[in-house]
Amino acid sequence: MPRGRPTDFQPRSRAMPFVNIRVTNEGVTAEQKQELIQGVTELLQRVLNKNPATTFVIIDEVETDNWGVGGTAVTTLRKRAAEAAAKTSA
């Protein structure tokens, strides 16, 4: 066996896909999650000919305090946006 190659190596065509979707925990419903899982699974089957029975889709919901964009937590960004909207509607 070639050096550095794991003994349980599977050919690329047999590898099971693993997709991890991360979203902020801002009200994604169970129905929406199911649609994401089904859609990603169907996409991998259609585009890459992957077996749906061995396709794993994980959805992680992340607290907005733990998700940052441009150096600022999403919680802060949402608060700023709400304050700005309140000012313009007043």
Describe this protein with a few key phrases.
two-stranded antiparallel sheet; 90 residues; two-stranded parallel ribbon
Percent range of helical residues: 25-40%
Quick check: average pLDDT?
A: 89
Number of helices: 2
* Approximate shape: elongated
Class derived from helix and strand content:
alpha+beta
Flag low-confidence runs.
none
- Span of the ends, CA to CA: 73 Å
Strand content: 15-25%
Account of the 3D structure:
It is a single chain. The protein is elongated. The protein has a two-stranded parallel ribbon with strand order 1-2. The mean pLDDT is 89. It has two helices and four strands. It has 90 residues and is α+β, with helices and mostly antiparallel strands. The protein starts with 17 loop residues before the first strand and ends with a helix.
Task: Produce the secondary structure layout.
Elements: E1 18-24, H1 30-48, E2 56-62, E3 68-69, E4 72-73, H2 74-89
Parallel strand pairs: 1-2
Antiparallel strand pairs: 3-4
What's a concise summary of this model?
With 90 residues, the protein is of the alpha+beta class. 39% of the residues lie in helices and 20% in strands. It has helices at residues 30-48, 74-89, and strands at 18-24, 56-62, 68-69, 72-73.
